[in-house]
Amino acid sequence: MNPAPTPPPQPRPPPSLHPEPVGTFGLIVIGDEILSGKRSDKHLPKIIELLGARGLSLGWAEYVGDSPARITAALQRAFASGDVVFSTGGIGATPDDHTRQCAARALGVDLVLHPEAAALILERMQDIAREQGKPYEPERPDNAHRLNMGVFPAGAQIIPNPYNKIPGFSCYPPRPDMSAAGPPQGAKAPAGGSEPHAVGERGGIHFVPGFPVMAWPMVEWVLDTLYPHRFTTGAWVEQSVIVFGAMEATLTPLMEAIEREHPGIRVFSLPSVDHPEYGRHIELGVKGAPVGVAPAWAALLQGLKAFDVKLGPELVRNQ
Q: Into how many domains does the chain fold?
């Protein structure tokens, strides 16, 4: 009896043309002053800008008030996500600054005075005394208290602050081969901050002050030092058209078909009822890697011919 023939191998689905990276980028903005309206958040648009200039995009953002329980819960979620997260605000040493303590609690580690951070803070104290023409008195109570700004979760790595030298810090979720907050302490670090030694391959939270003048260059340092391999400038395109006289529900089957037939491409729909130039309309488009966007865009335009709609300007955005 002849053995049954081996069935032919099944074709594998085509790979995504723009697969999700291992971990996306997120933002946590901390502070009652934002939620109360006392101050307007400037971080969200700036982080989007800094990421976009490097061909990256923000996957999510979260606002949290000065509640230790809520901050800890938000940080626990962020550490568990595997995402690269920037956290702004609450890393000072006043009673309403809880971020450092909450980060340690979220990781289950102790708070310790980081030696490099302490040295930078002492250097800053000397600078201030020199600027004010006063003697340097490190034992003075207010100066001693400033060292609390260098008390970070054990194992944290510093983020240099070019504005006033008071550093931020980075922490990473635990791995079997390293501590909860950061990489092995024996690894060599570049001058002025945490060492890249493959931390760009995993998620973590990078804590910076709430002051934009300090926070934004620190975020840029983190991106350019730890994540340059993730930069994809020119590898992402968004193409859309202004559609008049359509309802989103009517266009949904077409949008679903485009995503189904073009793996790795995302279809988006942005309705507007009072646009200053176009009035009531829908901006309908596709986004992804250029090689995938081209056929998906053609299919979208072809599909729109089946509807009684008027098409306006076509828009193209690149990263």
A: 2
| 225: helix, strand or coil | helix
Q: Could you tell me if residue 157 is inside a domain?
A: yes
pLDDT tens profile 3-62: 555 444 443 333 333 333 446 999 999 999 999 999 999 999 999 999 988 888 999 999
Instruction: Please tell me the chain's helix, strand, coil percentages from 3-state DSSP, rounded to the nearest 5.
Output: 35, 25, 40
pLDDT tens, position by position, 151-207: 999 999 999 999 999 999 999 998 655 545 554 343 333 333 344 445 556 789 999
Domain boundary among 214, 230, 246: 230
Residue 226 near residue 200 (C-beta atoms within 8 A): yes
Contacts of 58 (CB under 8 A, 6+ apart): 24, 25, 26, 27, 44, 47, 48, 51
Q: Examine the domain organization and report whether 165 and 210 are in the same domain.
A: yes
What residue type is 84 in one-letter code? V
One domain, residues 256 and 179: no
User: For the whole model, what pTM was predicted?
Assistant: 0.75
Its domain, for residue 256, covers: 237-318
Q: Which two tokens stand for residue 121?
A: 């803070």
